[in-house]
Amino acid sequence: MEFEFDEDQRLLQRLVRETVAKSRSQPADQLWATYLELGWLEAPPVELAIVLEELGYAADPTPFLATATWFAPLAGRLPSGSGTGVFDGTGRFVLDADRADEIAVLTRDGVRIVTGPELGAARADIFDPTLHVAHVEVGDLVPGIPDLALMGLAISTVGSCRRILDLAVAHVKERVQFDVPIGSFQAVKHKAADMYVAIERARALAYFSALTIAEDDPRRGRAASMAKAAAGECQRIVFRNGFQLFGAMGFTWENELQIHLKRAKAGDLLLGTAAVHRRALLEKTRQERERSGPQGERSGPYRETSGQEGVVTG
Amino acid sequence: MKLDSGSEVEEFRAEFAAFLDAHLPTPDEAGPASRSSADVPAWARRWQRTLFDAGWLLPGKPPEYGGRNATLPQQLAHLEELSRRRIYHSFNPQGIGIVAASILTFGTEEQKKRWAVPLLRSEITAALGMSEPGAGSDLAGLRTRAVLDGDQFVVNGQKVWTSGAHDADVLLTFVRSDPAAPKHKGISVLLIPTDTEGVVRRPFASMAAQDDLDFNEVFFTDVRVPRENLVGPLNKGWSVAHGSLGHERTMLWLSFAERLDDLIRDAPSDEEWYATLLMDAQALRLLGYRQLGGDRDPAELSVLKLLGSEAIQVASLNALEDRGPEGLVHPEVTGPPNHMSIDHFISSWFERYARSFAGTIAGGTSEIQRNIIAERVLGLPR
């Protein structure tokens, strides 16, 4: 397989980074207009992941994530305005349900589209004041989380984690104690290195998920759970180490670290934590094994097994 | 980004698979077993020679060095095809992967003919003399001395951890040739035949078993080495070390990915750690594939080593713990019997866990890898 971005994807990544950096302090509706104008909502899965990673990095205040990865895969189209989806069977903690123009609801009779105002869901109080979450009162809900929603939340969380690492690295390079920058201490370096490795791992699995969705590969269900679980595992390390490396300053309201710590933690808690998706991955892997028979379980030099990647993902 | 690797790679893979099906030694032909990383029994020498002659030993090299000028993705497919069947293409891995590779990169034409080709054809075997009692992570602090006396070097000192030295014909030895220079700038590399007077090799057992003899201490007392055995320029040994190990490190992640695949197959579990293992194996391959694209920071190879070796260690420990008191049993069949592998790690679950520390200690400890990531990738002060 080829796991490098191609030229167009690299260009897109640069464009998104520049756009997001330039419009950092703009209000949400202005940002939203920019995203629409640039056509980011229509991006196919891998390109969408590129956009979402950078929006996660910037703690994006718009309903972009919910519209592109909660509404669209359920409704099979983009909403007029913004959108979100109800697909976990409970209707609780639905991203942007308080402000979405359209809401796609997964019910026993299939997908139903309702307008946001019609539903009138009130925003819930949560620890992250920049995130919109609401509980939705609709009957006959059934669970069926789209792979794209798991991937989207995973790569957004990876973006938050990258931001936390960048902030922490900048801090430990500047903060002087015992007459040297604390970043010169190995105890500090090793925490930062562990954050970096966790991010690389989660990022790779998130893009793998996007790629399996883009190519409708049979591994897409497992890849989506891997992505969500890895993002959750990643934020555990990055939250803990990033917070710790900042010392008491990271605990203050005025330090922007708090914004990204909260986003990262919310990214794990929504749509199933790392533990939930580790178990989901085991279940999906078991089902896959049952479908494909005992082949690939054990192999000696003469035993033909399924392809390497097939072995890896079960 | 795309999932398939292209027909050029898949045709190459299929051709190699057909070759293996036709030529692989059978279990009856494969005996006796190799006892160390430089002990290559006659049947295994014949096998390596078969690979060399067919251009399947090091496909990335030209035919005179056992290859067919394959591309990097094709070389990866070759290694994957071997690992899928748990096959070693050489029972003297450091002889091919590091010693011959170093000579091909830094050696003279004469040295390539005299040493590299016989190594590749499995006519001789080699070991790598780098570490010393006082030079492990701080390799550049090595103290084995080489003094030029006419057209010979006179070598005095000691190496340790020299895998397979007692079975090897030649040692690629890193020596201090200029004690006055800064420590990275006074190192040279010599090929020292093990039958030279003054070379004493003492194998010592690992914790796995009293008769598991691969590690060696090697003592050099007034060992006279012809000047023509100098590999690369005098006092430029540090760049040889970087070059030869760098080559090895490019594909090192793949051997970790293989170990993870082995654990996936050998230790299926309903516990959550098994999901983490599936994820680690997939992530390592993805990051490794990305590395093939070129233009990557070599320091990022540290990410692959750290991720891979630590994942193996965690999964091996979990596999051991899964068994509870049954994990005490030794010997124990923990993987399929395989005459084509030099791994002894299938002897028990405890041994598999114990051997996982080779990955986190050898070739730069996990702590050193974290330093490299922090300093060279993240830019933290030294």
Automatic annotation (TrEMBL), chain A:
SUPFAM superfamilies: Acyl-CoA dehydrogenase C-terminal domain-like, Acyl-CoA dehydrogenase NM domain-like
Basic and acidic residues composition-biased segments: 282-292
Region annotation (Disordered) ranges: 282-314
GO molecular function: acyl-CoA dehydrogenase activity
Domain Acyl-CoA dehydrogenase/oxidase C-terminal as annotated: residue spans: 152-282
Domain of life: Bacteria
Keywords from the named record: FAD, Flavoprotein, Oxidoreductase
This protein's record includes keyword Ligase: no
UniProt similarity note: Belongs to the acyl-CoA dehydrogenase family.
Protein name: Acyl-CoA dehydrogenase
Organism this protein belongs to: Streptomyces olivochromogenes
UniProtKB/TrEMBL annotation, chain B:
Domain Acyl-CoA dehydrogenase/oxidase C-terminal: 235-378
Boundaries of every Acyl-CoA oxidase/dehydrogenase middle domain copy: 127-223
Cofactors: FAD
GO cellular component: plasma membrane
Pfam families: Acyl-CoA_dh_1 (PF00441), Acyl-CoA_dh_M (PF02770), Acyl-CoA_dh_N (PF02771)
Keywords: FAD, Flavoprotein, Oxidoreductase
MF terms in GO: acyl-CoA dehydrogenase activity; flavin adenine dinucleotide binding
Every Acyl-CoA dehydrogenase/oxidase N-terminal domain range: 8-122
Family to which this protein belongs: Belongs to the acyl-CoA dehydrogenase family.
Protein name: Acyl-CoA dehydrogenase
Source organism per UniProt: Streptomyces olivochromogenes
